[in-house]
Amino acid sequence: xxxxxxxxxxxxxxxxxxxxFCLRVxxxxxxxxxxxxxxxxxxxxxxxxxxxHWLLPGQCLIILLSIKVCLDFTQxxxxxxxxxxALGWHLLGFGCVYFGVMVIRYVVRMRLYxxxxxxxxxxxxxxxxxxASFMLLVGHYHWVHTRCEVQDGRxxxxxxxxxxxxxxxxxxxxxxxxxxxxxxxxxxxxxCTATVGRFAPPILARQLHLRPxxxxxxxxxxxxxxTSDGIVLVxxxxxxxxxxxxxxxxxxxxxxxxxxxxxxxxVVGRMWAARGHTVVVQGTxxxxxxxxxxxxxxxxxxxxxxxxxxxxxQPWFNGRLGMWGGSYFGYxxxxxxxxxxxxxxxxxxxxxxxxxxxMFYPGGAFSLESALYWAIRSRGPQDTIPSPExxxxxYARFPLVEADNQAVGEEIPFFNDWxxxxxxxxxxxxxDGEDRPRTxxxxxxxxxxxxxxxxxxxxxxxxxxxxxxxxxxxxATRLMIGPWAHAQTVTFPGGLxxxxxxxxxxxxxxx
Length: 511
Description:
Blueprint: H1 4-8, H2 11-33, H3 52-75, H4 85-112, H5 123-144, H6 156-183, H7 186-193, H8 196-207, E1 217-226, E2 232-240, E3 246-253, H9 259-273, E4 278-283, H10 300-312, E5 317-326, H11 328-334, E6 346-350, H12 356-360, H13 368-378, H14 388-395, H15 403-408, H16 413-419, H17 426-432, H18 436-439, E7 444-449, H19 455-468, H20 471-476, E8 478-482, E9 484-485, E10 488-489, H21 501-506
Parallel strand pairs: 3-4, 3-5, 5-6, 6-7, 7-8
Antiparallel strand pairs: 1-2, 2-4, 9-10
């Protein structure tokens, strides 16, 4: 058993580290709740992975636990001052990994983001190192000062009980520290440093020969926007750090919030934000955490107009906005093509046109394959990719309006609407709008595929924009046609495969 003096050697250092962490928490609170100008801005205090109203309670719990540890060391007695070798081993191991990851994070951050050198964005990293140092000191004490002295056979049972208590206490401490560190962003931030969402963007940028990243990125998850009819549209927002107001890219996402879709959105959002844009990835109704019912086409114009007004009120918006996306993403852009003040300053529309009736009814015949595939995939809260066998069941029988029932055994109301409106009637007029190529208010880069169903109507859009739109907008509009199907890369005879369509659709926005 170590002496009272042994624990006292660690006491001032533990109190010093705890005091530093308390100052960090206090500084963050002052910035969050009071308009102080002598401290760094809010975005400098955390990575943004957790909202502050979640982060603060976790930090307070860590402080309370650390105070208990410091008091035990000051008094030379208590649970945390009784030496336990296993506890020391666990704390030293975790502390070394924790500290090492923060050092790697700092080096990588300084390497990837020149604007951050040398102190930019370092507040969270420094104080993660403070917490790691606290753990290392406590672990060192327990490791060095453990003694299990056995003087005779009668003491063996007590030693055995002590070893049992060691494992028990180590387990309890790790179980209690784990949620606290997770809740306080430590473990989340550490893990995310090594995940696809953080490391893929710079690696991918190098492979695509994009201009270097200039800014570190802060992410706000789950930001709500309330529509006029009570629906909550939820966004993930990617902010370039230390830019003040910045131009914005809006992507309205019609997919479920799956791991794959979230990683895709994170990679794309980080790549734009690292180059100076605020990125708003918003779920459309009933998709990607947004509330409401997903009914294609019905609400996109009004929701989009209200989203533009909401962005215009945000403190990070500098008045310049662009939109990006293909297929249904493209439709969410076309419905806003006539908007100004606020309105987009540029569009990048891929594999989508102003004439969805023409896509569904090319030459007057219903495009059963495209319509049925899309309807089955989008009919529920989750994306469901139909198998060839499922689609074949729908193709096999008439009338066409029964194809959804035959394929999946249920009615898909919007599929029935498409089938039941074979003429260019008011139903399609509400979807396609009036003269969108002519009323276009910003230049657009159109990307089309030689093997895509939208190609004929996209060609018509381009011709009409050049002929009918404002001359300044028409002259700045471009059309790019590539060897793609609908969001798919085509393999040519002989096995030749061009670069993946997903990459081709992204590169022009950052090159």
